[in-house]
Each structure stands twice: as structure tokens, then as C-alpha cells.
Amino acid sequence: MTFLITGATGRTSAGVVRHLRAAGADVRALVRDREKAEKAFADLDGVEILDGAFDDGDLLARAFDGVEAALLAVGSSPDQIRLEQALIDGAAKARLPHLVKLSSIGAGPDSALLVGRLHAEIESHLAASGLPHTLLRPASFSNNLLMAAAPVAAAHSWAGAAPTGRVSYIDIRDLSEATALVLRDPALQGGIHDWTGPDAYTAPEVAELLSRILGHAVSYREVSAQERRSALAALGTPEWFVELRVSLETGAESGQIGAVTTALRELLGREPRTVEEFLTENAALFGAR
Ligand SMILES: NC(=O)c1ccc[n+]([C@@H]2O[C@H](COP(=O)([O-])OP(=O)(O)OC[C@H]3O[C@@H](n4cnc5c(N)ncnc54)[C@H](OP(=O)(O)O)[C@@H]3O)[C@@H](O)[C@H]2O)c1
């Protein structure tokens, strides 16, 4: 059985490749950067690497040939809609038996999140393609909290526009494991999986957790969305990514990304990793000595 993993060098996808190989499945990795993929999977056999542009019809015909199921997971960029839609068209042309799309919590045409609106557009293209598919809508990745690491390490504080909004989190390692299970098991396919870890936090509550883990006071400083935009732009962040980042905070305030579900725990058959575990493992990045 062969599975195609698109964007296989990505944070989620690379873990999926490893779980599939551990289960004995053959993996075809579609990437834009062959050298990066060869390094990432140097210790694995059974991974075939295909590289090139994700809108190259000939490449896609080779990529989807003989594949049982594929994971659609291109990283966030202004090109994501175009690339994922081209991949969906390639899959439909090849009559792929099943496509698993990595979408996002809060996906919807009226989402407060830029990523939510972007994924809604891709989801609707997928629905129109007629391809059998499954939608994965994971919560915010715990890794997003690393955006606070440098300011906390430097000044025991970080700033944002989400003083009260609750955010549910998922550890990418759990997401990768669960995604591989869905790819391999047709009984888990179809419909929507809303996956989160066991808990949700406001930013001030994350500050309390960090204070406990680091052994000194850490604070969250509330600023307006406009102040956040200006601060990110001043760091040289491209406009599109500024909007993506700020809408994660305004989306939290709108209450759209704080729900916790038990679906991931039920699927994995164990408690998913917590935010506290993630922050403790990464305490050095937040300045722990
Ligand atoms: N971050 C969150 O909190 C969160 C929450 C829920 C859902 N999601 C969704 O999860 C998905 C995957 O996220 P991720 O963090 O695992 O992805 P990622 O690591 O950022 O990237 C995944 C892959 O996409 C490739 N890629 C990015 N831009 C590309 C381009 N223009 N052309 C070709 N390849 C490109 C990357 O290639 P390289 O390795 O060469 O860079 C990588 O292989 C995204 O759709 C995101 O919206 C994210």
C-alpha cells in the first residue's frame, strides 16, 4: 500500500511519513526541496521522493499514480490556495481513492481567522471535485507558543491582542500520529475530525503556566490589534503573515478557537500531550536555566 504525503518536509507531514513507515506502509513524498527531504528522511528506507512544482500536471500524474490515499498539507503562504487546488485537481484527474486534507480549527467562509477563510476556500474546491475525502481540523499548534519564547527569555513578558480569548492547542506529534491512523484506516475516513489536546488557555493563563515552569513571574501585556500589526511590520514581517498572525489573536478574542474535544484522545487511545508538557520540554527556549 502506497500513501502520498504532500509537503512531506513540513512540521506535520514529516511526522506522518515516520508513522506510516513504522506501520510498514510505502510512502511517496512530494516536496519542493529534494535536498531537504533527502536529509529529513536519510534514516528511513521505503520513502520515494518526488520534487517539483505542485501545479505541474505531469509531476502530479506521477505522484498520484497507484496511490491508496494522500495527505494534502501545504504550509501557510499566499500561494497555498492555488497550490492545494492544483493538487486536488491532479488527484481528481488520477481518480485518487481518498484524500485527507489538513485544514484548521475555525475553517469557514466567515471565519475571524485568515487561515480559516483560506482553508474554507480549499475545502469548497475539494467538495466540488467529487473526490472522496476527510477533513482534519486541528486546534492551534502548541508550537505557536514558541512565538513568545524570545521576548519571554529577554524580558519575562510578551505582548498580544488576545487578553481574554481562550485557545485550544494540539501537539504536532499527536496530530501526525492521528493523521497517519486516518490515512491507513478507511473506517476513520469521511467527514470532519475536530482534534484538540486536553486543554485550552488564555494568554494570561499561559503566562501563569510559564511563571510556574520557569520559577519567576512572566506577564502578558495587552496591546491593540493595530499596535500588533505595527510591531510585526516593524520586524519586517510580510503583510500577509502580519494579517495571519494578528487574526489568530482577534480570532481567539472572538471565541472561535477555544473549544476542546475528546476526539483525539478517543482516536489515539491515550491522553494527548498537554500545553504544560510542551512548555516544560521547551523551557530552555523561554530562558530557563
Ligand atoms: N500552525 C497552526 O497552529 C495550525 C493549526 C491548524 C491547522 N494548521 C494548518 O496546518 C497546515 C500545515 O502546517 P505545517 O505547519 O505542518 O506546515 P509547514 O511545516 O509550514 O509546511 C508544510 C509543507 O508545505 C511546504 N510549502 C510551504 N509553502 C510552499 C510553497 N509555496 N510551495 C511548495 N511547498 C510549500 C513546505 O515546504 P518546505 O519544507 O520546503 O518549507 C512543507 O513541506 C497548514 O495548512 C496550516 O494552515 C496550522
Automatic annotation (TrEMBL):
InterPro entries on file: Ergot_Alk_Oxidoreductase, NAD(P)-bd_dom_sf, NmrA-like
Boundaries of every NmrA-like domain copy: 3-279
Domain of life: Bacteria
PANTHER family according to UniProt: PRESTALK A DIFFERENTIATION PROTEIN A, PTHR43162
Name this polypeptide is given: NmrA family NAD(P)-binding protein
Organism: Streptacidiphilus alkalitolerans
